Amino acid sequence: MRDIASYLDIEAGAKLRMVGANPSFKNQTLLEIRKETIFKDADQDIFDEVLIQNGALEIAPQAFLFVASPLSVIDAEIRSTDPQNFHDGLRIWNGNTINYLRRVNIKNGHPGVLVSGLGSRGHTEFRDCNIELNWDGLKWNGGFHKVLNCTFNSNLRHAIYGQNLNGTSEIFNSNFNFLPLSGISPSGSAIDLQGQEGSLLQASGNTISGFAHGINLDDMDLRAECNTIQNNYIGIKSNNAIVYLNNEASNTIKQSQSAGINLIGDESGGSGIYLLEGNNKFQFPSSNLSTYNHVLGLWNCNQPLSDYTPTMYMDFNYNQFDIPANATVASLFSLSVVSCNNPSTYFAFNADLSQNNNSAPTCGNSVVIDFHPALATLSELPPTFGKVSNGSAFAETPLYQALDQALNKLSFDEYIRDDQDALNDLILILQGTITNSDAHTQAYLNLAYRAMHQALNQAYQQNQLINNEGEPNPPISEIADVCGIADDWLLSLNPADSMDHASIFQLNLDKVHAYRVAGNYDEALAVLTNRVNWNFNFTQTQRASYWNCVCQQEKAYFNEEIPAEEFEYGIAQCQSTYAGYTYKRAINPTLIEETLEDKLIAYPQPVSRNLYLEKDLEFDLETTFKVYSLSGAALELKGASISGNKVNLDLSNLKPGVYILKVQSTNFNQTLRILKK
């Protein structure tokens, strides 16, 4: 009964509590949702609190329950009334409070649970939950999130899928497993997240097994500690971000079929990997050794951020990299930068492993790391004579000392510090007068700039700064300073010089993200309105247009032009319209993608009638397309038309559900999961 507003008049202070007898009743139906249902009354009033405890929430296929109130779900189960067909999820709105799901079984959903919210407002915490047999187990739109001690089994696409995230999200002590159906290869990720400048995922103590990608991040940095990532096609994949596996990170990455770590960086720089003294263990797979890499990285134009030896080798020492018999160290690392002037020219980097196998994972017996990964990065930069002066805060202060002071104030893990003070220190450093510059000084300033955005995100996350929520107020001084620094850096760049295009684009997008995390949408959209002046190629246009769409949706919510329950539809429209950005990007697919040599893409998912297939090479006219139910029964395909490297499949005769599609020809064989709505 979607029109629940006709039956409710929610007075101020009202609470809704649905509680079974005791936790042993968690599998017995407590609430059944038969249609799209929104817990609001006709005046858009909501409960002060909603509690579902000691019982099951049953949701019919294609129905959902939307809750905008602070929500607690404890000792419960969320499931479909028909296990053969997906419900459309428990949908939670992140307000200014924390939502809790504890000891909850979540299954049969598309997704199981959807959490939407804006900027740095509240978050949702999943603890001791079991998430299985969903299309996406958890789906996050915006904000930051926490997952602790959960188990994810056989979710058909992603265990966790998130977009437009900011701040620091945490995934701790959880198990991710994909148990494939007969003949079906995994094609999703355990953790697939996309963030904005300054966002970070902290992953610690997890076990991830059986996926195409263990962890797959776009524009979101990663600090990973004490994880076991095994039997995936790629262990960790990162686009345009930094992976921190240094400072006794102690991860085990083994039996990856293509690469332990796959890194991609675009022309804007600001991406790379830190591995020095990481005590990580990398084990090669039992097959595919001819194409396997422990670390595979390709960066466009810019040298990756990393630790370097004096001879400019990337310093990966004090880890364990297994080297098979009759193989060379170099054969297990592919690290290169493509020239901006000549896209067919690559410059390779060597990895220094002179201390290979000198340090093993130390989880369980090492000192807990309680400082932000940016501080560990500072300690590994080569010395500089650079000094900074700015008022009474810094007077000819060595850059290392100034940055050490600022970065020690950043929150990390459960250690909450003064991120706002760190932000102000970093602003002063970047606005200050630099003397005694040398070849290494810019690396310190680059670190300060990136840390400034991380401090900004975390200051809002910790409510040390208060979100403007779309009000027509001028930006606070910190936001004005952050964007002013970006403008100052832009002054040294020339739009007529193609070598500067990526940096011009990234600095403008950084301004958008700063305004967005602060809730200053008028200013964010003003920068985006002029994006024709700082977009220089199709990918940049797609990225900027995507964020323009997201900011418009978020502003519309704050202006009360759309209700919270319709926010997800707007974000979905941003995704579908600018799919060129939201699909995973690669600079050179033949070198960097997880080469199933001729990769197949199927869209849209879910599909209502026509499914489109695309791959790099043309389809053989003799290609066959076969559809099967999950039980293995062959089903009729209404029609298929081939045109070059594209195919149009008519699935209109299939009922809603999950199906297996097998595409076969003489030189091509792939299997995909298809969701029909």
Q: Provide the CATH topology of the largest domain.
A: Serine Threonine Protein Phosphatase 5, Tetratricopeptide repeat
Shape: globular
Measured between the Cα atoms of the first and last residue, the distance is 20 Å
Cα-based radius of gyration, to the nearest Å: 25 Å
Biggest sheet, in brief? 20 strands, parallel
Given helix and strand content, the structural type is alpha/beta
Report strand %. 25-35%
CATH architecture of the largest domain: Alpha Horseshoe
Overall number of structural domains: 4
Low-confidence residue ranges: 583-597
Strand element count: 46
Question: What is the averaged pLDDT score?
Answer: 87
What does this structure look like?
Helices cover 19% and strands 34% of the residues. It folds into 4 domains: 1-166; 191-368, no CATH class; 373-582, Serine Threonine Protein Phosphatase 5, Tetratricopeptide repeat; 597-676, Immunoglobulin-like, CATH 2.60.40.10. The relative contact order is 0.07. It has a 20-stranded parallel beta sheet that branches. A 13-stranded mixed beta sheet has the order 3-5-7-9-12-15-18-21-24-27-30-33-34, covered by helices on one side. A 4-stranded antiparallel beta sheet has the order 39-40-44-43, with no helix packed on it. It contains 11 helices and 46 strands. α4 packs parallel to α6 (501-518) and α7 runs antiparallel to α8. The chain has 677 residues and is of the alpha/beta class.
Entry summary:
By secondary structure, this protein is of the alpha/beta class.
Topology:
Layout: E1 15-19, E2 29-33, E3 37-38, E4 49-59, E5 65-67, E6 71-80, E7 90-94, E8 99-107, E9 113-117, E10 124-127, E11 130-132, E12 136-143, E13 146-148, E14 151-153, E15 158-165, E16 168-172, E17 175-177, E18 189-195, E19 200-204, E20 207-209, E21 213-218, E22 221-225, E23 228-230, E24 234-239, E25 242-244, E26 252-254, E27 259-265, E28 272-274, E29 281-283, E30 293-300, E31 314-315, E32 320-321, E33 333-338, E34 346-348, E35 351-352, H1 373-379, E36 387-390, E37 394-398, H2 399-407, H3 419-431, E38 433-435, H4 441-461, H5 477-490, H6 501-518, H7 521-529, H8 538-558, H9 567-577, H10 579-582, H11 589-592, E39 600-603, E40 610-615, E41 624-629, E42 634-635, E43 639-643, E44 646-650, E45 657-665, E46 668-676
Parallel strand pairs: 1-4, 2-4, 3-5, 4-6, 5-7, 6-8, 7-9, 8-10, 8-11, 9-12, 10-13, 11-14, 12-15, 13-16, 14-17, 15-18, 16-19, 17-20, 18-21, 19-22, 20-23, 21-24, 22-25, 23-26, 24-27, 25-28, 26-29, 27-30, 29-32, 30-33, 31-35
Antiparallel strand pairs: 33-34, 36-37, 36-38, 39-40, 40-44, 41-42, 41-45, 43-44, 45-46
Helix pairs in contact: 2-3, 2-4, 3-4, 3-5, 4-6, 5-6, 6-7, 6-8, 7-8, 8-9
